[in-house]
């Protein structure tokens, strides 16, 4: 078992996470408030942008292969190196879906 340092960008929070545990479970252990919902890699609530480093997250079904290179689902992601994560950053597909839904809702209200 290897431990890696996970630093959360924009906060003073840094934790040590074993390569055998998820980043989310380490956050729980350290008392860090990390957003989450489903805990099975689907809802993307626990998403974080990978600023630096690598993770493995084979069960992160909510991300495309391309998104999984730039974003970590902390409920599934296990560090493979020291990391810098920017919490609360979501893949473009989520941002696009939210904008489309907001646009559709506004159009529906005008009818």
UniProtKB/TrEMBL annotation:
GO terms of molecular function: 2 iron, 2 sulfur cluster binding; metal ion binding
SUPFAM superfamilies associated with the record: 2Fe-2S ferredoxin-like (SSF54292)
Domain 2Fe-2S ferredoxin-type, chain residue ranges per copy: 4-91
Cofactor(s) the protein requires to work: [2Fe-2S] cluster
Organism ancestry: Archaea, Methanobacteriati, Methanobacteriota, Stenosarchaea group, Halobacteria
PANTHER family cross-referenced by the UniProt entry: FERREDOXIN (PTHR43112), FERREDOXIN-2, CHLOROPLASTIC (PTHR43112:SF3)
Similarity comment: family membership: Belongs to the 2Fe2S plant-type ferredoxin family.
Highest taxon of the lineage: Archaea
Protein name in the entry: (2Fe-2S)-binding protein
Keywords in alphabetical order: 2Fe-2S, Electron transport, Iron, Iron-sulfur, Metal-binding, Transport
Protein species of origin: Halorubrum ezzemoulense DSM 17463
């Amino acid at each position: 078992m290897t431990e890696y340092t996970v630093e959360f960008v924009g906060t003073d929070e840094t934790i040590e996470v074993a390569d055998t545990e998820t980043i989310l479970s380490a956050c729980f252990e350290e008392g860090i408030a990390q957003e989450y919902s489903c805990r099975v890699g689907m809802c993307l609530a626990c998403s974080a942008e990978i600023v630096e480093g690598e993770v493995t997250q084979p069960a992160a079904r909510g991300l495309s292969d391309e998104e999984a290179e730039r974003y970590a689902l902390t409920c599934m992601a296990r560090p493979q190196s020291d990391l810098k994560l920017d919490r609360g950053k979501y893949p473009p597909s989520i941002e696009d879906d939210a904008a489309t839904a907001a646009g559709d809702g506004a159009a529906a209200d005008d009818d």
